[in-house]
Amino acid sequence: SRQINLASRPSGWPTADNFDLVEVELPAPQEGQVLVRNLFMSVDPYMRGRMNDAKSYVPPFKLGEPLEGGTVGEVVESRAPGLAEGDLVLHGYGWREQVVVEAARVRRVDPIEGVSPTAYLGVLGMPGLTAYVGLLDVASFKEGEAVFVSGAAGAVGSIAGQIAKLKGASRVIGSAGSDEKVSHLYDLGFDAAFNYRNGPVTEQLRKAAPDGIDVYFDNVGADHLEAAIDSLNTGGRVAMCGAIAVYNATEPSPAPRNLFLAVGKRLTLRGFIVGDHSSRMRDMIAEVGGWLREGRISAQETVVDGLENAPAAFIGLMRGENTGKMIVRL
Ligand code: NDP
């Protein structure tokens, strides 16, 4: 079976040299274990942090060992009660074609009629939960409020914006890195959208939100956060979800330079990690799954074929080559 190991730690932007495609022999599953053939794996921005040798909320990937990440696979051999050949499972052992693993480490998932199993890596999985709890629990979004979402054409952002709309936002504004993505945001029902590469974010956001914003869902950080602080109304809230603008930076970002405005505007800026909110998974799947079945929410995916292309898919994700969830089909 083939897997991708971390060959070296990137400094700044990752390159193909940081990854090693290797062939390994898998042991036969022991009592309590299953052999899983992986079908789809996720590449996510947080993996960039795990490539650094730094203490964080998840331990770093180890050099010379396979990377990890959310994956959907099929059980091909089971020596564990409760799991049978053919079962669809979700687990964290991505970046490899097959894995032998303790049954406790995999979760059986039901195939949903008319919905691809990749949904468990996106809209009905970790990114969907991030959007749901970030908007509703962390930023305490209420009906009638105006919401700005950055990284809005991505996995988390596209769902966050649509949930805000479905929950009665007065106005939803999104930013993304290309004109195609901007027109896609209008298709998703955003009230306004702009391409952050076309001019200063602060000016573009002021135009898109003439009455200001009440909630900012931050996927980008830096100049986007500065623009949001500028446009936030008194009592505004920020769900600090990510800061992809700085993940590959070798120098700290000077923005946001206007943080002091948080005082007079009584702003709340609140960071969160989705793993602390797993108790909300059921609610999210019930509500967002319902919208998905009714065709009221749409979840795009960009699918790259082949394990050997997983590093390129990951680097492409950081460059904005995806619309919606970036997935690798194995
Ligand atoms: P996305 O699907 O949004 O993919 C990343 C996107 O980031 C790219 O498509 C690109 O789109 C955009 N991007 C890259 N560089 C920049 C830049 N310099 N400025 C602005 N946009 C940029 O990924 P996810 O939806 O999986 O993740 C979105 C964010 O949420 C990330 O910051 C991630 O770390 C965070 N996150 C946080 C979690 C938590 O628990 N707190 C959990 C999951 C995700 P474009 O073409 O528009 O530039």
UniProtKB/TrEMBL annotation:
Superkingdom: Bacteria
Keyword Hydrolase: no
Endpoints of the signal sequence: none
Domain Enoyl reductase (ER): 15-328
Keywords, ordered alphabetically: Oxidoreductase
Gene Ontology molecular function terms on file: oxidoreductase activity, acting on the CH-CH group of donors, NAD or NADP as acceptor
InterPro entries: ADH-like_C, ADH_N_2, ER, GroES-like_sf, MDR_fam, NAD(P)-bd_dom_sf
Name this polypeptide is given: NADP-dependent oxidoreductase
Source species of the chain: Planobispora siamensis
